[in-house]
Specification:
This protein has about 425 residues and is an alpha/beta fold. It has one domain: Spore Coat Polysaccharide Biosynthesis Protein SpsA, Chain A. The chain is about 30% helix and about 20% strand. The strands form six sheets. The protein has an eight-stranded mixed beta sheet, with helices on both faces. Strand 13 and strand 14 form a beta hairpin. The longest helix has 16 residues. The protein is globular and about 70 Å long. The N and C termini lie far apart (about 60 Å).
């Protein structure tokens, strides 16, 4: 059976005959590209995900427990110094690297390019989001007399734009040989009626499959091996859009090492019981995050003897791993979560269809789903106003206006912005 026959058999098996019809209308070279793509897609998995759309996470008999967090602002001076010195030794030894997850576009901000190319007007000047990260790296390099390797996870959608932007701005003065881009994974979109779609490129339409694909992408693009050659022992992973994110924090390193853990995260305490954010907890004895929509109301409101929410530690996408943890997680398959989206596509006659509403399902894996492969992790609770100023929406909460206000307030207080 040749490649085309194999593809046709697969498409028929999963009721995707419209793709066969489309394939037969293509030029030979276009058809071959489509055939190669389909051979590399896991169509069975996508159809299985579609058929199980209504199976959502349920607590049921799962055991949900509080996870222990160290509150930065309640640390004794002696412990603070001890943890920080441990972390500083790691950084000074050149064993620390930073990954920025920057696969998204700035569409929700009304920005046409990658989100990292979005510019904000701060009291200390107009700066791009990528530029803010570089400033943080440069300050750490000066302080610890090292050059920290910087890895950027892009997407196929924005990789070329990101690379061009960084080159155009000369990487904002950062050593080019210490910056490497890698591309996150993809998964096919499927219509709400269970059909694969064709994109403008005349191929099956795919989209980035969530930040959880970082682990496999690190291995696939040779980044883990690259880090190991550079004697990297610890890797920080954070998002591109939090302008107060501490990407180099020796304290987090010291806490994690002292507790004997391989993974760690930072948290902020939730504002109120109904805040729309996932919270850290233990699920059947394993660390993880439970979404606000999945946590029963009585549990979301539960407080401990100190008057604090039992389930109140919100993730701020600030994670730390040993290189061994990243290597282990790169071999694991994470569950997919479903999001309903709006997406243009070509019909069987090649006409561009622009839907009025949401018409496709997108499958995404989340970075925190990997935490369950460990028995424990370190959580360092920090102040929201000092380390969490994300830019996600054009206006309202988590907008440029709210983030800039927090950044400028910290600037006025003369607090260290990045470390």
């Amino acid at each position: 059976m040749n490649k085309e026959e194999t593809v046709i058999k697969t498409l028929k098996k999963f009721n995707q005959e419209h793709i066969i019809s489309w394939m037969n209308k293509l030029e030979e070279n276009e058809k071959n590209k489509l055939i190669e793509q389909i051979l590399n897609l896991n169509i069975e998995q996508v159809i299985d995900l579609y058929n199980n759309l209504n199976k959502t996470f349920e607590i049921g008999n799962k055991k949900i427990e509080k996870i222990t967090a160290i509150d930065l602002n309640k640390l004794e001076d002696e412990d603070f110094k001890k943890y920080k010195n441990i972390g500083i030794d790691i950084i000074k030894a050149g064993q620390y690297a930073v990954i920025t997850m920057a696969g998204g576009q700035g569409t929700r901000l009304g920005h046409s390019g990658p989100k990292g190319t979005f510019k904000v007007k701060l009291d200390n000047g107009e700066k791009y989001l990528f530029q803010i990260i570089v400033e943080s790296l440069q300050k750490a390099n000066e302080k610890y007399d090292v050059i920290i390797p910087w890895y950027i996870m892009t997407s196929e959608e924005n990789n070329d734009q990101t690379l061009s932007f960084l080159e155009e701005h000369d990487y904002f003065g950062y050593p080019k040989n210490k910056v490497k881009l890698f591309i996150q994974g993809k998964a096919p979109l499927i219509s709400t009626t269970g059909k694969l779609l064709i994109g403008k490129d005349k191929l099956i339409k795919e989209a980035s499959d969530g930040n959880g694909s970082i682990y496999k992408s690190l291995a696939k693009d040779g980044i883990i091996e690259d880090m190991k050659k550079d004697n990297i022992k610890w890797v920080f992973v954070g998002g591109v859009d939090n302008i107060l994110l501490k990407i180099i924090d020796p304290l987090l390193l010291g806490v994690t090492i002292s507790e004997g853990n391989e993974i760690a995260s930072k948290s902020v305490i939730k504002n109120d019981p109904k805040e729309r954010a996932g919270v850290f907890c233990k699920i059947d004895g394993k660390p993880g995050i439970i979404e606000y929509s999945e946590l029963p109301e009585e549990m979301s409101e539960e407080k401990d003897d100190n008057g604090e929410f039992v389930y109140g530690d919100v993730s701020i996408l600030s994670h730390l791993y040993t290189i061994e943890a990243l290597q282990k997680l790169s071999t694991k398959t994470l569950p997919y979560h479903i999001a309903e989206k709006k997406s243009e596509y070509l019909d069987e006659n090649g006409n561009l269809i622009k839907p009025e509403g949401k018409n496709v399902y997108k499958f995404e894996s989340f970075i925190f789903d990997a935490f369950s492969y460990y028995n424990d992790m370190s959580i360092l609770r920090v102040k929201r106003e000092e380390e969490f100023a994300p830019i996600k929406n054009a206006e309202g909460n988590d907008s440029p206006e709210t983030a800039i206000k927090l950044y400028n307030a910290k600037l006025q207080k003369k607090l260290a912005l990045y470390m």
